[in-house]
Amino acid sequence: LVKGRETGRFAGTEYVQAEGTTDWQPLDLVLKQGYRTTPPPLPPIAVRRGAPPALIWTGIAGGVIFCLSVVIGMGYMAVRFQRDISGISRVSPSSPLNELNPAAVATAGKPIVWDHNTQTVADDQKRNRAFRLRLWVDGYEQHGARNPECDAEADLFLRTYIARNYAGKEATNSMSLADESDKLGADTNCTDAVVLTVAADEALNHFDAIRLFRRALAAYPSSSHQAYPQFYATVRLAGLLGYNSDQGGALETSALELVKRCFSDGSFTPDDQQEIADIFINQWGYDFFQQNGASICSISHDAGPKYQWLTSTLNGEHEINEAWVARGDGGANSVTDDGWKGFRAHLGAARGDLTAAWTLQPDWAVAPDLMMTVSLGDSDLSEMRMWFDRTTKAQIDYAPAWKEMRWGLRPRWYGNEKAMLALGVAAIDTGRFDTDVPRKYLDCVYDVESEMGLASGKHIFGRDDIWPNLARMYDGYVSASSQKEYLNGWRTSYAVAAYFAGKYDVARAQLEALDWKPETSNLSDWNVDLSLMPLEVAARTGPIGRKVSAAERARNFGDFSRAMKEYAALKDAPDADDRTRQFIECRLSELNAEKHLNDGDWVSLLPTRDDDSNWIFSFGKVHVLPDGAVEVESGPKGHMLFSRLRAGMNFEVRGQFEVVRSANKNFQGGVVMGVPNFDGWEWYGFRLKRHVGEEGDVACFAVGWSREQIAQHIVLNDVTNSFDMTFQDSKVTASVNGVSVFDQADPPRQISVPGNSCLIGLGAFNDSSDTVIRYRKVQLRKL
Fold first, then answer.
1. Distance between alpha carbon 549 and the CA centroid of its chain, in Å?
2. pTM score, two decimals?
3. 199, 266, 480, 605: which has the highest count of C-beta atoms within 10 A?
């Protein structure tokens, strides 16, 4: 996208969506400030995904996070954004479609179509789980290299892997899939290809995943496993290495042969047609299908008439893709007559294939959903809604259909703000709180926010036309017996939404119902640090709430002196409760440090005690030494801790770290900045790392801890290394041990942080949990 913008391929007005996010923004805005992530209010039930989430941060640039996709979607529009950024210019800013359109509101607000035969994600999960139990667990038990030394452990590992992704009783056991991946991957007794494939899928480290996939692929030829697991491993390895890598072509060729074998050896059966289509259209096989669509359609056709629905559906998807290839990805005024002719011809062919597929199996959701895409390209909102209704009648909570309908209601297509919200209200009106459908209202609100171009961390939840419906949505989930297992998660998200809406009394009621112990996982992914939210709500709704709110207003306006004065006066207020006092203590400490930062002073960027209330300790064991140094013992993901100080977007950090212990000679130390969150996107990591046998000694500046990075090979010392890093005017300048590594370098992309203010801390991903790093003299100043 960056390259395309620089070369003029994109105008900058195209709308794009980051993988793992829910909103679309103009390309120029995205390139300027990065993507705003949005929270998943519902606690995780199970996940469906392509690449494992951990690999996103340790190895794959731009990978697709499918966590929580059972509840919020399957990444459908994220992996198909190329088609949509091309289509956006189909409607020009002056088009009547961008004007108020009462008919769109009526179309969007129609009741959702479903009946007693309509399926749900839960039904979809059963099918997915059965498919994978047959091919992974049964395959291992019938054909695996089952060494008694690790057989029981490997079997439980496979079952847990499936249960965590597709629901099942093993989902609640205490096994860490990442730890088990390391353990089985290093166990010389474990040589089975299927187990190694799943271990690769769950590896936290990019290089470990590649190594394990290669071991698995070397073991398959001498095994009696069916073709599907080998096909999966081949495509996944090609994705990790890149289809344009030296091995990409050979892996693609091998994968196509394995697809043929899947149809002939029993890996695929006619009963699996929905799952096969889903793999190629919405899941991990999407990129592979984009590269080889014609060949895969031919293979499906050759499998015979029992696969007619699958063949028609895949043909339809392939024709849609070819339509956009024929059209090109420029603006509408750049499309040639031949381009439009090809576009319409391919969409016409897709219409025929997909209509035939729907006629064969009207109770399967994939084909009518794809017809929504066809309608978006060559018809109107009325037809989109017809196919949407046909999709929801098949599966009411089919996430791609909801996302496509919401996209069609954007002002640049066929709708407007009222229409976007009307669809959300219709979702609540279903009363289907046993599904994700009512929660779609929140997605619709996010869509409106993205159209408004709201800054990160800002929401319109409190609007008079939004809050009553949002409260109705949350109340429905809180009251639903089907959500009893996730009640605390719903209450936590309800409290957060009320907090953003300024409905502090509602937030307090939910926090009180939680005994003031919100679910930590539901406080993350809002791209805002919410660690003090419970205390702030208590303070704003307590006996001196009005005075606290006044002090907060001064702080938010940057009047630190006034805020400090008002909070100091409240510190010993006799009628303040304990939570209010804790909040005031934290705010006073923050304000004092922020005042020094704003005065241009250097301030310490180390916690003063193991439980420093001004720091967030995400993971890793932290211990403050008597001399002020801070030792961090890494956990499975490394270590991360950060201060609540708001440093702005122009700052300098300097300091040093010592390697106290490392089991494998590898180590990492560094700085995190933005809104640090291992599973989020809106933060940077500056790291100094030694990775023996792979990367060597490297200094890198990355989005999170991914391989979306700028990097420089350097020479690190075995024990002590110093660093000085400046981030100013969106440029990175850094030195390591006095040697320059970056000079006014551009970061991989711009992140978006609330209030244009970074949170700064310490952190790095370490290859071994048996690693201890000691930080000394780490200081921060604002520029």
1. 34
2. 0.86
3. 199
